[in-house]
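Section 5.1 Outputs to date
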Amino acid sequence: MYKAIHSSTWENCVMFLIFLSSFKLAFDSYTWHLPDTNRIVEISNIADNCFNYLFIAEMTSKLIAVGIIMDEGSYLRDSWNQLDFFIVMASVVDMSLSAYKIGFVKIMRALRVLRPLRMIAHNPELKMIINALLDSMGSITNVLFVIGIVYLIFAIIGVNLFKERFFYCTVDMYKLHTSYECELASGIWKKYDFNYDDVISAMQTLYVVSSLEGWPDIMIQTIDMTTPNQGPI
């Protein structure tokens, strides 16, 4: 019982450190424009190094306790620990080469955004949810395939009903109904971004409509359309 309580306390401390580190990364998004000599940036870099040292110490203690990879149940035998190891080692490389202004170091620094993912490795409930999502990927793929077929059917119907009917003139669109009239008025004869001229465009239009974001504009354009290659009325 004491061992379980001790382990739970340890994991809670690590989770708290990960939370603080994530908060620090969010704070950095407000200081990116400041020079490296700024006091806030210097304190932020010191805090970043402290988090790195603490995470290295935590990983090292686990490596000593359970082994690296040889035995069953070793640290690197677990896929979540492998992610943990990769994130910590990326931080080590970033910290070691921080004095050099090269592109590779910038990539390592960008990998710091993966730190919040370490919460998954230290939380059994989150791991269970992620594992359940990964196990259900096959079923989700089948559902997406069925949805894609439904979209394709309605896209073909849309092409047959509305092809080449979504043109308009940039000048007096409700008065100038042909490309010739539009050009005479020094306008530009254009096509709406979302239309049904081909299956791909139709599926994109259907996706926008089904997302309920921007569908009123498409509805109005459809109501105003007339015959092929004619402007709206």
